[in-house]
Structure formats: C-alpha cells, structure tokens
Amino acid sequence: MQLTIQSLSKTYPGGIRALDNVSLTIPTGMFGLLGPNGAGKSTLMRILATLQTADSGSALLGGIDILKDRVELRKILGYLPQEFGVYPRVSAVRLLTHLAALKGVGSNARDRKLVVETLLERVNLSSFRNKAVSTYSGGMRQRFGIAQALLGDPQLLIVDEPTAGLDPGERNRFYNLLAEVGENIIVILSTHIVQDVKELCKNMAIIHCGKLLFHGSPSDAEQQLSGRVWARTMTKKELVERPWQYPILSTKLVAGSPYVRIYSESEPDHGFRPSEPDLEDVFFSFLSRA
Amino acid sequence: MFREFFRFEIGYWLRGWMIYVFIAAIAIMFGLAAGSDSVQIGAATSSAHKNAPYTVALWYATAGVLTCFMAAAIYDSSASRDFSNKMSDLLFSKPLGKWGFLTGRFAGASVIAILPALGISLGVLAAHAVNGSDTERWGQDYFWHHWQPFLVFVIPNTLLFGSIVFAIASVTRNTLYSFLGVLLVFICYAISQTIAGALDYEVLASLIDPFGLAPYAIASKYWTVAERNSLPIPWTPLLIGNRVICLGVSLVIFWVAGSLFSFEARGQRRTKKSLLVEEKSEGVELPTQMQSVPIRIPSPSWFTQWYSLLRSDLRAVVGSATFIVILLFCMLNTGVNLFLSGLSGYGNYYFPVTYDMVERILGSLVILPVALATYFGGVLVWRDRESRMHEIIGATPAPNSVFVLSRLATMVVLLFAVLVGAIAIGCLYQWIYGYYRFQVGVYVLLLLVLFGSNMLFLTVASFLAQTLAPNKYAGYAFLILFIILNTQLWLWLKWETLLVRFGAMPDYTYSDMFGIAPYLPSRIWFATYWGAVAIVVLWLCTVLMPRGAASGWISRLKEAWCSLHTRDWLIPGMAAVAASGIGGWLGYNTMVLNTLLGSTEREKRRMEYETKYQHLEGTPQPRIESIQYAIDLFPETRNMVMKGKQVIANKSDQPIELLYLNVMPNYETTIEIAGALLQEDDDRLSMRTYRLDSPMQPAESREMTFTVKSKTRGIENEVSDASLVQNGTFFNNFVAPSFGFSLNRRLIDPQRRKANGLPEIEPLPELTRDCGEFCMNHYISEDSDWVNIESIISTSSDQIAIAPGTLVESWTENGRSYYRYKVDHPSLNFYSFISARYEVKRDKVGDVDTEVYYHKEHRWNVDKMSKAISDTLEYCSKNFGPYKHKQARIIEFPRVASFAQAFPGTMPYSESIGFIANLERPDDIDMVTYVVAHEMGHQWWAHQVIGARMQGATLLSETLAQYTALMIMRQNYGDDMIHKFMRYEMDRYLRARGFERRKERSLMSVEFDQGYIHYQKGGIALYYLAEMIGEARVNAVLKSIIEQYAYKGPPYPNAYALIDRLREQTPPELQYLIRDLFEEITLFGNRTLEASATQTDDAKYLVKIEIECRKYKADATGNESEVEMNDFVEIGAFSAPESGKRYGKILHRQRVQLTQGKHEFEFLVDERPQKAGVDPRNLLIDRVPDDNLKKIVIK
What we know:
By secondary structure, chain A is of the alpha/beta class.
C-alpha cells in the first residue's frame, strides 16, 4: 500500500499559500516530513487526516480517495495532532475506551476493554490507567496520544511534531515505540528536527513555504552534498565581517567559538576544511537555496 | 496603582466594540418602546405621556434586568481576564498592590458598566425628537427626570451586580460561579416581584428587591395619570432603605472578596504531586516483547458510537458540578417561589390544583430552561474544541450524526432533570398543603411533553447557532438574536401565522374539566410540523459540523455538498417533504378552512363597520319579543347547531322596510323572515340587509327564524372558540343575529382610534336627567326589552345541558339527552347555554330550587355556594322585592375565562376562581360567598332593574350588586372581615386609577368598562353611606326602586333614580356625602401622628391620639386640589390580634366632625389597645390607607 499525493494546493483566506502543488509518494514505513515552523507541514498532515480540505489536487491511499471518502479513510487512520488536549477529569482507560468506541474498535465492550488494556500496557501507562489524563506529564500524555492513534490497527499513522517539549529520554522511548509500529504501515512523522528523521526514516521530504524541496531517502540527500560541505572554527569578529561569499549552512558554538559550515562546489579559501555532509546540511542547503 | 488600572480598564473597553453595541441595543429597544405602540416594556400602558418621568424611572429600574447581564459580562471579563488569557503569571509577578489593583479594575469596569443604561434616555429622547409634536402623548423632557433614576437605580444596581460578579470571578477565577451569582440576584428579584402584590408583604418585597423596583412600584402604585406625568422618584423610607442595603451589600461583598483575593496562582500543589508520582515510575523500561493486539478492521456501529458519546457528554454536562449546582438552585428557587406565590387577590390561597402548580412552576423557572438550553447547547457543541480534543475526535470514523444526536439526547436528559425535579417539588408542595390528588400525568403532559417540546425546538436552534458561530459567545449572541427576531420580526411584519415562527405552537389552557382536549389536535399537528423542520435543522448541523480545524461555514457547506452521498439525503429529504406537506396542510387548515384574522385586520373591519353603518344609529328596527330555541350540542366534535324562532315587533312609530342584522363571524347563519329579501350580504363586516316586500307597520309583529351553525373543523392557528369544548361548553345568546348598528362593534380604544385618525367617542352617551331617546334602550342589548324564552337543548348522553328557566322535561332520544327549559318571567335577552358532565347539589329556599352544578373533583366550596345563594335570596327578597324565577343555579365552567356572570336565574362561575379557593385559614376573606352574593344581587340589580344605555348605567347593576354582596358578607362575618376586605378594595381602586386610559368618571357617571369605579369605589361608597345613614334607609331606597322599575321599561331608569332617592333619605348634615361619593371624586389624606395610652386605676386604658386630616377633590386626569373639610369621620382603637389571626377586634369607635388640620382626642378603652387612629376601618378613600392607624405607645 502506498500513499500518493498529486499536486495538492491549499491557500488560506488572507492569501497565505500553505501548500503549493505538492506531489509525493509515500511507501510503507516511516516517512519523515521535514520543514521549518510554518512550512505547511501541519496543513499537509491535517489534509491527510481528513481534518482540512485542499483547494486542488488529490491524495489516494490504496483505493481510498482521502479528499472524498473521508469516513473510509478515518477507519484506517491513526492521528496524533501536534497539539491536543483532553477532557478534564476523565481517566485514561475511560477516555481510550470512549475513543475506541468512536473508532469502532471491537464489536462489544469486552473486546474494546481488551484492546484498551493492551494498548495502555504497550505504551507503558497501565499503572496510571485510572488517573485523569489531564494530570499527565508531557511524555505520558504523548504516549497516551500514540495509544489512541494506534486504536483500530491503522494503516496510515500520522504524527505531527510528536516530540516537541519532551526530554531526551522520553523522546527516545517515544521513537522506539514508533519505529516498532512503523514496520508494516505508513507512518508520516512531521518534525523540524533533522536528527529525528535521520534516525528513524527510510524516506523523507523537505517542504518549505508550501513547496516540496526534496523527496527521497536521507542517504540520497546526503549523497547529493558529498564533497561540497566545508567547515572551520573562527572568531566572532570573523563571522561578523564575513570576508568570503559562500552560503553558510549552519553556525554553531563549539566551546564558545563559532563553528561554521558552508556550501561550496569547489574548495574554498579562508582555511575551510572538507567535512562529511549530514542531513542537517541537506536541510539547510535546501532552505538557503529556496 | 489605582489610577493606572482604572485608566487602562476604561481605555480597554472604549477601544472595543462591545460597550457601543450594548448602548445601541438598549437605545433601540427603549426608543422603540417609547416611539411605537406595538413594542412594550413593563406595564406602562396608560394615558400617561410616553416620556413621563414615571415611565422613564420605571424603565431605568426594570432595565436592570437587561443591563445586569451586560454588566456581568463586563465585570466578569475585568476580573478574570488575566487568568483566562494566561496573563496572570506575567502580571502578578510585578510588584502590585492588591487593593490598588482590585479597586482600579472595579472602578474602571463600573464606569463602563453603567453606560448601557444611558441608552434608555438616548432612546426616549430620540423617539421624542422623531415623533414628539403630539403634546397629548409627549411631555417636556427634564434633565432631572432622567438623571435621578440613573442615580437611584442604575448606579447602585450596577455596583451590586458588579461586586457580586467581580468578587466571585476574582476569587474563584471561574465564570460559572459568576453566572450563578447573577442567578441568585435574580431569584431575589423574582421573589420580590411575586410577593409585592400582597399587601402584607410590601415591606419584605421592598427590602429584598435587588433592583429597587418594588419600593418604587409601591410608592407610586396609587399615582394618577397627572402624577405619573410630573412626579420625580419619591424618597420613601422603603426606597432609601432598599438603596442603602443595596450599596451596603455591594461594599461588604467587595471587601470580603478583596480580603480573600491573592495574587498567588492556584492548583500548583496538585500538579506537582502527580508529576512526582510519574517520575518515580518513569524508569521502567518498555517491555521489549510487544504483545500483539487482537485488532480487526474496525466495524463501527452507529449505536455503539452514539452510546459511548452520550455517556461521555452526559458525564461532562449533566454530571458536572455546574449542572448539579444549577439544578439544586432551580429546585430551591421553585420551592421558594411556590411557597410565596400561592396568594390570590384578596390574600387568600387556592387549593394547589396541578395545573396551577404547573403554571407557578413555569412562572418560577422563568427563563431558566431557556438559559440552560442556550448555555449548555454552547458547552456541548464546543466541548471538543474547548478541551482541544477536536482533532483526535475529528479523525475518528464516527459520523457527524453521532455527535449531533448525542448532544440532543444529552440536552433532553438535562432539561428533563430540571423539569422532573420541579415536578417533585410541586408534588411535595401539594403534599405539605394536604392536597393528595397527585396528577402525575398532568405534570408530565404539561411540563415534559408540551413545555419540553418547546425547549427541544429551542435546543435545536441553539445547536444550529453554535454550529454556524465562529466561537461559543458568538453562538450565544446568534441564538439570542434569533429568539428576539423569531418573536419580534413576525409581530412587526404582522404575520400572524405560527407556521413561520420557529417552534411556535398554538396556546392552550388546561382545565380540570376538559384537560387540553380542544387544543390537542392543533398541538400535535404543529409539533409534528416543527419536529420535521427540526430534523432538517439537525441535519444541517450534522452537515455543517466542523471536524478538526474550523473553517467558514460557507466553505463547510460547499465541502459538505461535494461529499454527500445520495443516501445521505434520504432522511432530511423525507423530513423536508413531511415539513412542507404538513406545513401546506396546516396552511390550508388555518387559512382556508378557517380564517386567520390579524389584529390589524380586525381593527380595520371595526373601522369599516363604523364608517359604513354609523348612519343607521337611531334608525328604527324591530325588537325581539320572545324566542324559542332548539339547540343541538356535539361536545365530541366541538360543534353546535342553534335554531331559533322569534317574534319581532315594530315598537316604533314608523314603518320599517329595511332590516339590518349583525351575524357572528365564524358561524354559519341563515335567516328567514316571511316576505324579506336579502338585499346585501356584507360577509366581510358580518352584516346583512333585508328588504321587506311589505314594510312592518308600527305595532306589527312578525315571525323570524334563524339557524346558527358553528364551523369547528380542521386545525386553527390559535383555537379561537373555547366556548365549544368537549366538557364545559359555555356560550351565550349573542351568537344569534341582532338588529341594527351595534355600538359595541366600533373601535373603542381611544389610543387606537387616535392612531387611525378617528374622532374621539364616548362609549356611552353623557348622563342627563331627562334622557329621552337614550332611555329607550338598556345597556345590555339594543334590540330587545323583556323577552320570553323557551329552549330545547340536546347534548351527548353523559352531559347535562342547561338553558335559562325551569326544567320542564327531559328525555333521551337516539342516545342523546334532551332538555326543555322555560323562563318563568320575561327576562333580559341575555343568557347562556351550558353543557358538561356535572355533579349537582340541590337545595330549596321557599319555592325556589337552588342548584350548584360542579365538576366532581371541585366539591370543596359547593356547600358554601349553596348557602350563599340561600342567604342572598333571603336578604334580597326581604329587603328589595320578590325573586321571580323558580330556580337559582351556580354552574361551573372551564377556566378559559375567569369570571362569574349572572343571567336570569343562572350564574356561570369559572372553575378558576371560587371552586378551588381554599378558605381553611382563619381570617380568610370568603371570596366564594362574596362572588355568589354579588351574582345573586344581579338577579335584582340588572335582571329586574336595568340602567338606561348612558353613563352611570352600571351604578344600578354592578354597584348595587356589590352593595348586596357586602351586606351579606357583613351579615355572615361582621365588621372585622369587612375592614380587611375594604383594604383590598381600596388598594384596587387606587391602583387602577393610574391606568385609566380616558377620564376617571365620578361614580354616578361611570362608564360601563370602568370596573374599578363601579365595583371597588361603588362598593366602598355605598357601604360607607349605609354606615352613615343606616342600612335600613339605603334598603328602603332600593326597595322603592324595585317597586317602580322592576321588569319595566322602556324607558329605563338612569343613575338619578338612585341618587335622587338617596338624597331624600340623607339627613341635612350628611348631604355633603352624596356630592362627595357620587358626584365628585373625593380623596382624603387622613393620618395619625401620635398614639399613646396610659393605664387608668380601674384597669382601663386612656388612649390619646393626634391626627391630621386633609380632603381633596380630583379631576378626570387625577390633578388634586385640597378643599375645605367639615366631615364626620370615625376615630377608634384596635386590640392586638389573637394568635393566628391578623386583625384585632375594635375596642372603640366614635364618629366625630373634623375640619382639615390637626386634632387631638382622648378616649377610654376596656382592654389593652394595640393600634389607634383616624378612620380605623378605612371607610374613606384615602391616598395612604396604611397611616390611618398607629401603634400605641403604652406609657
């Protein structure tokens, strides 16, 4: 099964073009959608999650036209929005059972209970199952989010910026869980953290200002930049004066001094040394060129 | 600190749009109320100026009900803005002073919150500017008349509301509790409104009214039109007390709230705890081996989804603290109101019959159900989005219909919970009052089914408003706007049909006699119609329901249009077809089968009638001499056929060629007169003109037959004829055709006449001693004198049918009961026909049969009624003259009207007045006897002596019947009871004067529709005269009137017949009474300044009083001028009432002659006195009756 997106466009009232003729094919497995804040990732995700309409274009999953057969898609969809709240004073079990009923999981209450218990076990929330979800910490709440997204054995799982606000430990646990379920189904993960995509995804896309800039595997992307990334440490004064004209990919502080990576087809002057390109370079090179 | 917050707050509001909308809304509303006759706010209908200071003040006081919600919104926002916008952490970490912050905010919000009320003055002044040239309707605008009510009402009211809302919102940081605070204030208001009408509770009502309306209404209750037009708000102690309480309470609340307020954030501790718990166990590693979850491809079942959602919604809304608090609050409010609202007009109670409980429950819930449907409709629709679950929920495959129908079911449960709770309170109340006839079915029918269906339609509208709205508050605004439009727009367009008013259904009246049978078919059909419409609306909600990110509803509609399948159209399509089908059928029923006449159209026809037929006034027409009726009643189908055969005679001195006959619209009438040809059938004005081929010569008689057939068929817009019902048919002979131009069919209302450019008319000709032509007719009918009546009346076999006269025979035929009645003496051509399933109580006084026909569940006062008939019969036969009928009947009729009426020998008496009166408490005024005695009095005063058709006519009937009733009451209960009764009568008279729409007449020239004069003032006047000159002398006068005029005429007597004789009987020193009581409008301002007593050696008490007397004469609009006084007035003293009673006995009574000014008196009494003063029994009409007596200080 694969997800085929054909020239999808969306303009908001007020003229903001959130998606501009985006075409993508997403196969089974983890798919990373990379882009800075405001790039149109969430719009794309929401359209795929049937929560928003597109102005034009099409999106097909197997035989399902996402833009038309919304109810059909929702039956096999798992969605974890970027931001979500929960009803106050409702326990995890109760809320998950309610969502299971809405999703149509199981044919009777016993089935649903089994599914819910198993899922809570799986996301390691069993011991908090009777606590109100509204009192959960960020990581627990996110795990509850993935549990509800996994209800009903989805064929398409959409997770929108799932690790924002999680500490590194929580983030790792969350990704382990995601990687596991992402083996046989389509998982679309949107993020602005390059590292995440690199670690998890076989395929990826970069979008910026509603436009698709890159589509392929992370290694392909890195391959493209092979031999074109150069780097060195410099003083702050040097960085401000900038006596060269190469595009800067990134500037980081290493022990208090700027460490600058640049893009250049040929070997640059000013003491830059060749550096192995990583996905971040790819991302920034696309952004700087866009 | 204060200044910064104060200025910021004012600036914040002035930059927004809300305050301007508020001011504009109030200005438009009151501008319309002042400028047009069709919009009314408060009970300001009188001939006072549109911009009278009284009206403006009343509006400022009542507007509190509206502006307090606006104020609540402003204060709530001021107090909770920091929390709801999450500014609190930023703001409160600054070095703020608590009181500076609070007072600054509060003062700023107050300055803004008082502004909307100014819209009243804006509206009134604008309305005056637009149509103010008419000096009769508009007075001068004075600054103080607007400014004073603003100071007296708006500022304290706003501060009270503000402090409550501000305090609750800033302490609890929760809007809900502010909302409850507002409701609490409302309940105080509702209670004060409920009890303000009862004389005994005036002080309490004044003190608890949060708006200050009650003390103002009480202070101004006796104001005449002239006073309403000129007086500012009077500073009565009650009003000052009320305002002081209001401001004091505000201050205390604000201070308490300020003390409780702190800048620290809430709820920190709890969050920390749960975090700790988590961190401890977070170390557990994920199990590496994943269990496989037994998942199948989901097969969503609609019902499972709906049920799960319903449970979730119910828990969130009905199970919420909010709702439970509101529910308890409703119960409390209903309970309190039930216990306070049971009083009838004379301080009595009714038996708590179930329909009355239902009406009182609805009265005490007021707008709560509407508020609930509005508030929780918004909560439900926005629940997912407010808790930010909407994207997760939106991505589930549950169809929209699941959500909409779950919300609907939740609202049903919610509303039912409130109504069932109210029913429980109602039953509890009945049980406490020893009323054990629990009609749960009636409660369920009236509250759950009929009222519930109204609320359901409102809920549906609420859902649609919320679905279309960009946020919850806009949704509330949409709904309120819709509710206002839905009632006002159609009124304004003058579209009377209910088919366009969403959720509107015909009114109904429940009666113990017929249930709601006459109204049932129309209710069912309209409910089905609106049900179908509601399904379409719900479907729209379904289609337009946003999932996930909200977009404009136009794009939602487009989107929905594209994604709808053919099968999705099935249910709404069927509903739409059903709605238009039923709508069409109802349209055919209400507008084709039945006629739907708007009030404008009816008014127009009255005017046309007047213009077209006015010239016939005085044209000789035949008069009816005798009638034989054959009437068939069909209660099951609410139909009747009346056949009449009557002898008509030309009693004029000219030949009559043209006959003009008024017929009843909505009835089919056929008329046959030998040799008469229908010349014109004016169907529109219900007037027929016949030409006789040989004119009727003077003194010639002819026979005329007619058939009047009711046309009850199909469904009406509103059930128009509640006189034909399944059980309790009650109509009078006016359905039969009548001769000549009918003065009563003109447009009488003076303001409507003026608005339509018609000249002023007096309803009755002016009273003149020599009345000539005018005395040739009496005031009840214009085409007959004393007639013989014989009737055969049939009805279904389980009912008894009653016509006037003696029952000659009865039989059954074809399963129907037939009765033949014959009147024993020629009588007025004015009587009723009645049929119902009755129980009968029979008795005999001399050779007169007394009968009480009653509904079998209403037997409480039947014996009392029977006795009252006998007592009055005996009193009147002895004192006035013989009774000419062989029977006297009281007949209960359904509560579609609430009066009792006297016809020859028969007196129909409404179910809702005497039959359910509860007279078990000591000291209750016996209304039952009183009304029966009054109607029995009419058997002499109206049915033997009837006044000529001119002013003062009702003096000879209503006033004398009232006098008769008072004498019977005095005979049965003594003076103490009369004293109490008089207070109520005085109160009614003084109140009603201010609502006079034409001129207040003197008693002798009273108009026939001035009930407050011929009943209240007349009774007081004649009772007082009897006190002064003696009952025997008054009765002698009445006896001589009977002797001269009984069953005589034309010519008929007028008021002089009575006045002249009374004057003759009055001793010279009391002659002034005739002028004061009958010829002029006289008022007193008597009061007691000091009252003290000392105990004497022989265990008696020497009472000392200082009194002040004033006497005034009033003109027709209530302008008073003081006059010389040299009148005989009583002084006296009362003992303390026995426990359980409300009035002590009279210890001393003494008649003294008094001039105006101060006087001092001393007298001895045997017992310890409690109160003493001038005119202790309130026999004189006194502007302030309550200060006649003063509590005695015992030295």
